[in-house]
Amino acid sequence: MVCLGSALLPAVRAGLTAPLAALRETAVDTSGASRPRAVTGTALIALAVALTLAGVLVAPSVWLAGAGAVLALVAFVVLGPVASTTAVRILGGPLHRLRGVTGALARRNALRSPKRTAATASALMIGVAVVSLFTVFGASLKATMDQTVSRSFAGDVAVSAPSFGAGGSGLSPRLADAIQEVPEVNTAVGLGRGVAEVDGEGRALTVTDPVALERTFDLGKVDGSLRDLGTDGIAVTEKEAGRQHLATGDTAQLTFTDGRKETFTVRAVYGRSELAGDYVITRAAWAPHRTQDSDSLVAVTFQDGVSPDAGKAAVEKVADRYGNPEVQTRDEYAQSSAGGIDMMLTLVYALLALAVVIALLGIANTLTLAIHERTRELGLLRAVGQTRAQLRAMVRWESVLVAAFGTAGGLALGAFLGWVLVRASDGASDSAFAFALPPAQLAVVALVGCAAGALAGLRPARRAGRLDVLRAIATE
Do 177 and 258 sit in the same domain of this protein? Predict the structure, then answer.
C-alpha cells in the first residue's frame, strides 16, 4: 500500500508529460516555480500561521495548533519548488564568487529543475525539521526547569535520592531531621509524596512540614496560614482551588488509597505549585494512611555567613549515613533534573540519523540520474577545457546546494513547530513553559546537514569524473 502511494504522484506527472517535450533533450524546467503554485503555497502558509496562532494564543487548543502545524508542513512542500529557486540563488551567490565558473555552473544545475531540487531536498528537510523540533523543545524544557528552580526553590542545596542504586525507595524521612541538627543549617524540610482522590478526582499530595516549606520555597501570595493545617487541614494552589471551586474555610473530601474517607478544611491557598505541588498536608495527617513513608527531596537553607562549600560539606557528612544521596546546589539540581531530557534527545537523534541517511541517499541517487541525463553536456564541458577536478567539484557543490536548501527549510520549519509544541504544552500544563532557541545546537545541525550533502555528492562526482570525453559527446 505504501509503495502504491509513493508511486502515485510520479505516475500522474509522467502521464501529463507532453510527447514532444519527452522527445527533447534535458533543459531548464521552471514550471515548478509558477505563479499559481506561489499563490497557493502563500495562502496555505498564511492559513497555517492563523490556525496555529489561534490554537496557542487566542483559544488554546492542542488540536487546532496541531492542524496548523500539519498544514504548515503541507505548505512547505507546495512552496518547495518556488522557494528552491530563490534559496539556491541566495545560497549560491557566495559560491559563485568563491569558486568562479565551477560554482556558477553548480548553481545553474541546481536551478535547472526546481521541482526535482525541491523533491530531492524534501526528505532531508523533514528529517532536519524533526531534529530541530526536538532540539528546540528540549532546550525549552531545560530553560523551564532552570526557571522553575530559580523562581520556586529558595534553598541553598537539595538532597535527592541517587538516580541508580537506591531501588526507587526515596529518602528516609529522618534525614531532614538529622540535617536540621547540623549547626550550619537554618532549615531542612523533606518533601514526601502521597496520592488521594479529592472530591472524586485523583490528585498528588505533598507531605511535609508546611512551616518549613514556606521558609524554603517561594509559594507566592498565601491566603490563609500554612501554620494551622494540623491533622485536618490542607493547603491548595490558586489554580487548583479555582478548578475545584475551593476557598479558605471550605471543606474537601479526600479518599486515600486505604479506602478511608476524611474531610479536610482548606486553611491556605498559595500562588505557585511547581516544586511544591498542588496539595499540601502535614505528616501527621498522612500518617494513618501511609504505606511507605519516604521523601523525594530535602531542601536545605544555611545559616547566615555559612559559605556554600562549607554548608554542602556538612550536609554531605550527614547524608552519607542515609544511603549516600546526592547533595547538589540549586544550579546542579536544575541540571540534574533536566538530565532525562538529554537522554531523550540522544535517543531521538539516533533514530532520526537513519532518516537523514536515507534522505542523503536520495540526493546521491538523484544526482546520479542527473549525470546520466547530462552525459553529453558533461562531455562538452570537458572538451572545452573543464578539468576532471572542476567537474567533480561542480557536482559536489550542486549536492551541497540541494542539501543546504533542505537544511535551511528544515531549520525554519523545526523552529516554528518547536515553538508551537512549547506553547501547546504551556496551555495544557499547570506550569509555565519557557521557549528557548539554542543557536549553537541549531548551527551544528546546519553544518552537519551541509557536510552530509557534500558526502552525498562524492559518489556521483566520482562517476562524472570518470566519463570518457569522446563517448560522452557521442551520446544521443
Answer: yes
Same domain, 312 and 203: yes
Q: Is residue 12 part of a domain?
A: no
Nearest to 212 by CA among 228, 178, 189, 179: 189
Q: Residue ranges of the alpha helices (H) in 320-338?
A: 330-337
Please check the confidence at residue 386 and state whether its pLDDT lies above 50: yes
Give Cα 93 distance to the centre of its chain. Answer: 32
Claim to verify: residue 298 and residue 251 sit in the same structural domain: yes
Regarding whether 359 and 302 lie in a shared domain, the answer is: no
* Best CA proximity match to 476, nearest among 410, 362, 379: 379
Say which CATH number the domain at 287 has.
2.40.40.20
Give Dmax (Cα) for the chain.
96
**What SS3 state is found at 296?**
strand
Q: How far apart are CA 452 and CA 2, in angstroms?
A: 27
* CA angle (65 as vertex; 60, 69 as ends), nearest 5: 165
Do residues 85 and 114 touch, judged by C-beta distance below 8 A?
A: yes
Q: What is the pLDDT of residue 11?
A: 65
Number of compact structural domains in the chain: 2
Round to whole Å and give the CA distance between 15 and 13.
Answer: 5
Picking from 33, 30, 29, the residue whose alpha carbon sits closest to that of residue 83 is 33
Q: How many CB atoms lie within 10 A of CB 28?
A: 11
Task: Summarize the confidence of residues 370-381 as an average pLDDT.
Answer: 80
168/135 same-domain check: no
244 in any annotated domain: yes
With cut-offs at 50, 70 and 90, classify the pLDDT of residue 8.
low
Measured CA angle at 79 (ends 78, 83), to 5 deg:
150
Same domain, 100 and 244: no
**Within this chain, do residues 125 and 188 fall inside the same structural domain, yes or no?**
no
Running DSSP on this structure, what letter comes out for residue 153? B
Q: What percent of the chain has pLDDT over 90?
A: 3
